[in-house]
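Hi all, posting the design record for the shared folder.

TITLE: backbone redesign
STEP: 1 of 1
STRUCTURE INPUT:
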């Protein structure tokens, strides 16, 4: 399965909203009915509860290992522990730019934690005679809070996790967690089955009701910030979108989302182009420019974005980036959200920034450009060693695995000339020419690099032995400015790297034919990109 970026919003359309309303009412209605039946001690339910409680408890009582396991689950899933974990998760979400999702998480978990003890006091149902726990039984507090936590996970995963296979796995695990906690309460003999079912219904009603009351999606920039002055009045601005269709689960749904967001933001109806295996975006970008587009949004991986940007460089047409690939280094370095809906919002309502484009030539290659980094040696060997099928399954972890396999890529002898100066000779396992400075996971390989300073930054890494990578990585992560034969840094407008023999090469993660030479020239302010305000 490809690394696919779009999945439907939690509540995207009026039809979806009415569906959520119906499910909320259904869960709340069933909970209310169950509450009445328990409160009136309806005999069929009472008898069924007693029949279902005896055998699970005896099973646990007769097997010490099962009893210990059940007690461990009970302790680990205490409602207060789950609420505390949710607060930590909410803080992480806020730090990552999902403040509303964090607030929504706290609302759900707080509501669940407050609701169940109040309802216990209202119903006053004694616990089963089997267990040794005091207090009231209906509804199960563990089941309520665990169900709310599972609901939070399902909603957040639906919003934020791109990979369809991973989304499904996390949803199944969340539901299994709630079921496990509920079953644990029955196995310990501290709750009836109806107590657990009621806890699940209450949790579902709280989660769905919170979705209706407070949208966890980020608010549009257009609603939060004063609009920028535009040359054309609202409704007359044309926007084109270039989509790599294999990067989204539901191309039609994604198009509908972008169309609606564009209209809501004052743009005309979106004109759409799709890339092909033969053309990653060059022809589509040219046709979008000729059609009179005032903005072009590129949706795809690094290859699609590089093709669109290269074609539109120098036209004055801004490009909005929607990172739907695996690496997405350009978006990361420009603080463009990886959450696709938020990235579309930035593309439509962000501000324009003039950034540098880098023209590159060399032996055994056609003249090309890059926006992020070009490399020779180890970093290109990483790209070369990535198994595409493995990458489709695990995403960026495929690059980590490839890097581990390529750590002792043979050193190459290179000459480096900056701005036409006298070349210097070095031994290196990798040479990187950077237009930006940060790699995956925020690793600051070239921390002083800026995409709009008219300069290129060069770094050469030469760990002599396998273990030498450890102190070298520490120096990179701590942004230690010291240079020696292990790490060399240079800066200039043009950079020529010439190796003693053919070496693997890459541009923005795309492999080139192995060769001896890379000549890079910074084209200052050549491209307009939409960035966050």
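Okay, here is what came back for every position:
SEQUENCE:
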């Amino acid at each position: 399965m490809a690394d696919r970026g779009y999945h439907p919003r939690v509540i995207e359309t009026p039809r979806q909203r009415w569906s959520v309303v119906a499910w909320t009412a259904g869960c709340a209605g069933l909970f209310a009915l169950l509450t009445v039946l328990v409160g009136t001690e309806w005999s069929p339910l009472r008898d069924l509860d007693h029949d279902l409680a005896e055998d699970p408890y005896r099973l646990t009582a007769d097997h010490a290992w099962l009893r210990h396991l059940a007690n461990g689950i009970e302790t680990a899933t205490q409602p207060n522990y789950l609420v505390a974990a949710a607060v930590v998760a909410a803080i992480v979400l806020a730090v990552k730019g999902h403040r509303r999702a964090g607030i929504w998480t706290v609302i759900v978990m707080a509501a669940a934690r407050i609701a169940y003890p109040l309802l216990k006091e209202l119903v006053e149902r004694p616990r089963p005679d089997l267990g040794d726990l005091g207090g009231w039984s209906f509804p199960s507090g563990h089941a309520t809070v665990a169900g709310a936590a599972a609901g939070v996970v399902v909603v957040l995963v639906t919003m934020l996790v791109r990979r369809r296979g991973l989304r499904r796995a996390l949803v199944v695990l969340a539901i299994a967690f709630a079921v496990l906690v509920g079953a644990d309460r029955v196995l310990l003999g501290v709750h009836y089955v109806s107590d657990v079912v009621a806890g699940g219904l209450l949790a579902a009603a709280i989660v769905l009701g919170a979705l209706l009351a407070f949208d966890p999606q980020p608010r549009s920039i257009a609603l939060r910030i004063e609009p920028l002055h535009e040359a054309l009045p609202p409704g007359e601005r044309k926007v084109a979108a270039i989509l790599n269709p294999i990067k989204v689960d539901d191309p039609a749904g994604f198009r509908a989302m972008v169309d609606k967001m564009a209209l809501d933001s004052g743009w005309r109806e979106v004109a759409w182009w799709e890339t092909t295996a033969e053309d990653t975006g060059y022809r589509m970008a040219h046709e979008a420019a000729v059609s009179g587009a005032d903005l072009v949004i590129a949706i795809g991986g690094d290859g699609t974005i590089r093709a669109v940007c290269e074609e539109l460089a120098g036209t004055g047409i801004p490009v909005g980036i929607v990172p739907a690939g695996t690496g997405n280094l350009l978006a990361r370095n420009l603080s463009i959200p990886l959450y696709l809906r938020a990235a579309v919002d930035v593309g439509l309502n962000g501000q324009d920034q003039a950034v540098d484009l880098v023209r590159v030539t060399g032996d055994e290659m056609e003249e090309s450009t890059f926006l992020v980094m070009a490399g020779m040696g180890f970093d290109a060997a990483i790209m070369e060693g990535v198994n595409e099928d493995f990458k489709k399954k695990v995403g960026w972890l495929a690059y980590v695995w490839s890097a581990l396999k390529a750590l002792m890529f043979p050193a190459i002898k290179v000459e480096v000339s900056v701005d036409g100066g006298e070349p210097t000779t070095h031994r290196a396992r990798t040479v990187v020419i950077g237009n930006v400075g940060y790699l995956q996971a925020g690793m600051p390989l070239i921390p002083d690099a800026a995409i709009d300073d008219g300069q290129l930054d060069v770094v050469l890494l030469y760990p002599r032995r396998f273990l030498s990578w450890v102190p070298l990585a520490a120096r990179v992560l701590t942004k230690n400015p010291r240079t020696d034969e292990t790490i060399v840094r240079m800066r200039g407008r043009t950079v020529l790297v010439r190796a003693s023999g053919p070496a693997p090469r890459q541009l923005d993660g795309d492999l080139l034919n192995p060769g001896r030479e890379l000549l890079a020239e910074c084209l200052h302010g050549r491209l307009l990109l939409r960035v966050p305000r």
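COMMENT: Confidence is low (pLDDT under 50) at residues 1-8.
Let me know if anyone wants the other runs.
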